[in-house]
Task: inverse folding
């Protein structure tokens, strides 16, 4: 279904590409130099404190991540993600520079006998929110920070079920708020309270499927998170709370892909260190 039919925003603010890479052995210096060369037109997000500027959004930016643990498998199997030992994350306001990079990367990797699994997404204005929720969930959100400060990166691809997309928009939106009994006691936290612990310490971004929702191809949403090593327990706590269907009934309608964990690094050589 398209965004308009679901009473969701249609405006595209930017593009994201998640390129999960697997090569059969450790690359040599010449190959790593070639990988660095194709990234030269883009900004390296690893060294930047704060959101990308207008020039970086126009040119595009990249971040290298090295897998740190086997992916947590979800209900949607995806060997391209779970088998990726490297992630190169791209973002920008203009799609073309990202696709140019992706094409050059594929050529490099496939010549070495490796694979690239690409997941695409777009940034959009928030659909499930109000002024009060924006103040609660986003006014004090952590902006992007350099890799030296927030070295951990996690990707959480997911789909919503057909039943979710068939709901009236008001009912869908209600899942993000807590539920109360007749005496005002909270009986279910909902998405907002289940994830509240992460607001002060986890940088989060949400990418939407470029062509719509519930299409059966790609993912409806791709979540991307960055945080310090010390905040990894908070992230796990948040995800456990979201997955608790008694406290967050929304998760009855979520089908997760692999949850991929990586470490942000500044150079291509560090990807296979």
Result:
């Amino acid at each position: 279904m398209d965004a308009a039919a679901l009473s969701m925003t249609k405006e595209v603010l930017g593009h994201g590409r998640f390129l999960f890479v697997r090569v059969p052995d450790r690359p040599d210096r010449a190959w790593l130099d070639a990988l660095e060369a194709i990234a030269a037109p883009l900004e390296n997000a690893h060294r930047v404190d704060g959101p990308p500027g207008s020039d970086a959004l126009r040119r595009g930016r990249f971040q290298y991540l090295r897998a740190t643990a086997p992916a947590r498998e979800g209900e949607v199997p995806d060997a391209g993600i779970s088998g990726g030992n490297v992630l190169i994350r791209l973002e920008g306001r203009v799609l073309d520079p990202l696709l140019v990079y992706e094409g050059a990367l594929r050529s490099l990797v496939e010549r070495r006998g490796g694979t690239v699994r690409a997941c695409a997404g777009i940034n959009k204005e928030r659909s499930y929110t109000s002024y009060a929720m924006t103040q609660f969930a986003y006014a004090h959100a952590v902006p992007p920070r350099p890799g030296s400060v927030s070295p951990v990166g996690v990707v959480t691809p997911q789909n919503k079920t057909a039943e979710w997309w068939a709901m009236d928009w008001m009912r869908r939106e209600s899942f993000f708020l807590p539920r109360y009994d007749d005496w005002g006691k909270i009986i279910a936290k909902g998405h907002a309270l289940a994830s509240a612990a992460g607001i002060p310490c986890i940088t989060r971004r949400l990418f939407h499927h470029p062509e719509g929702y519930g299409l059966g191809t790609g993912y409806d949403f791709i979540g991307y998170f960055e945080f310090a090593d010390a905040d990894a327990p908070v992230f796990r706590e948040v995800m456990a709370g979201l997955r608790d269907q008694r406290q967050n009934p929304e998760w009855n309608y979520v089908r997760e892909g692999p949850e991929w964990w990586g470490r942000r690094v500044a150079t291509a050589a560090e990807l296979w260190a």
Remarks:
- The chain has one domain: 4-272.
- The mean pLDDT is 94.
- The first helix runs from residue 29 to 39.
- Residues 4-272 form a domain with the Alpha-Beta Plaits fold (CATH 3.30.70.3420).
